[in-house]
Design brief:
36% of the residues lie in helices and 24% in strands. By secondary structure, the protein is an alpha+beta fold. The protein has one domain: YaeB-like fold. A hairpin with a 4-residue loop joins strand 2 and strand 3. The protein is globular.
């Protein structure tokens, strides 16, 4: 059964922020990263369990998973509910993992 992918407003904002940052360096690079992340998120429609549980986040009852995208530079942090993949965060893997825990905890979903 296919899953729907839902991007939270904050995750969309993360994606927009990445685009803005990389477009200052190169619009072509920004477009490639932006579109690549969206394209890779489509893998979750077939099987969201391809992504492991995100070990840095312990926020029951939701079980967060993360999919490495864009040459493993970013993570899509999400959970699954009612056949819907809910992306809550686009995370740059060069940041401190402890900040990911705080960023997800502060988000409403």
């Amino acid at each position: 059964m296919p899953f729907d992918v839902f991007w939270s407003e904050l995750a969309k904002g993360d994606l927009d922020d990445l685009y803005e940052y990389y477009s200052q360096l190169s619009v072509d690079v920004a477009v490639r990263i932006h579109n690549g992340i969206i394209d890779e998120s489509e893998r979750l429609t077939r099987n969201p369990e391809i992504a492991p549980f995100e070990q840095t986040i312990n926020n029951p009852p939701k079980k967060f998973r993360s999919l490495l995208v864009s040459k493993r530079r970013f993570k899509l942090v999400f959970y699954v509910a009612n056949n819907t993949v809910k992306i809550v965060c686009v995370w740059c893997c060069r940041q401190n993992p402890a900040r990911l825990r705080k960023a997800v905890r502060l988000r409403k979903f």
